[in-house]
């Protein structure tokens, strides 16, 4: 579905309760809140002669929302891709809880605890919203294939709990009433929320969101940011790519700024806003992107 598709999704119902108990009760994170959960060290990505990321280092602390911002082509998505195994970094390291992720396949990185959404939505179009989420939960099942084929009690228990947890996640992101709809038939806004639910289903230690509000109007963006704050308040750690500087200022605890593949700033939002290097990087960008 194209990003210009109809924006007729339901308004996000801001949940009154968190999601941690129902959907992510098994998270076991070996790092204290406030300590470095992810370390990106000297990450460099080259595409032929183009240096898309140039020796970038930053940390993500457990429990924070870290914004990754920068003008068009700054290297934000490349950074996500290098962290989550889509691209192999030319050099440098990515560590989660002190363990090296370089060289691991994408699904292993997801299993290790780094879940992501994509700038261009990637759902299973022929599956319902609920099935899309249950696929994420399935990755954590403990029964064997034989156990599943023989429908052993443990498998049946896990299947039931996956459906309940999947529904809880859909409820959390505000689209439970569309659980039985094929994801390709969902309105654009609901597809974006479903992507977040599916990523949460993998029980992530870090949730990486690549422009989750792309194509939203200002009111929808604000609702989504509120949802992301609730996710953080529920104990998750979030890495958020966002092009719109105004938006990112209101939701993040800290911001890393990239320009032409290099890190040019790393600080709290109020300092970033006044940083002359950041202001000049955004010169020439649409006014809406910087405020
Ligand atoms: N697969 C690729 N092959 C070649 N060049 C690429 C590839 N992916 C990204 N690039 C280039 O790397 C640079 C960084 O791109 P990237 O998509 O990471 O930027 P971005 O900050 O995410 O931009 P945007 O805000 O427009 O999404 C750009 O010059 C882009 O053209």
From TrEMBL:
Gene3D superfamilies xref list: P-loop containing nucleotide triphosphate hydrolases
SUPFAM superfamilies registered for this protein in UniProt: P-loop containing nucleoside triphosphate hydrolases (SSF52540)
Region: Disordered, residue numbers: 1-21
UniProt cross-references to InterPro entries, sorted A to Z: AAA+_ATPase, ABC_AA/LPS_Transport, ABC_transporter-like_ATP-bd, P-loop_NTPase
Keyword terms: ATP-binding, Nucleotide-binding, Transport
A GO term for molecular function: ATP binding
Domain ABC transporter: 38-285
Tree of life domain: Bacteria
SMART domains per UniProt: AAA
PANTHER family for this protein: AMINO ACID ABC TRANSPORTER ATP-BINDING PROTEIN (PTHR45772:SF7), CONSERVED COMPONENT OF ABC TRANSPORTER FOR NATURAL AMINO ACIDS-RELATED (PTHR45772)
Name this protein carries in UniProt: ABC transporter ATP-binding protein
Species annotation: Arthrobacter cryoconiti
Phylogenetic lineage: Bacteria, Bacillati, Actinomycetota, Actinomycetes, Micrococcales
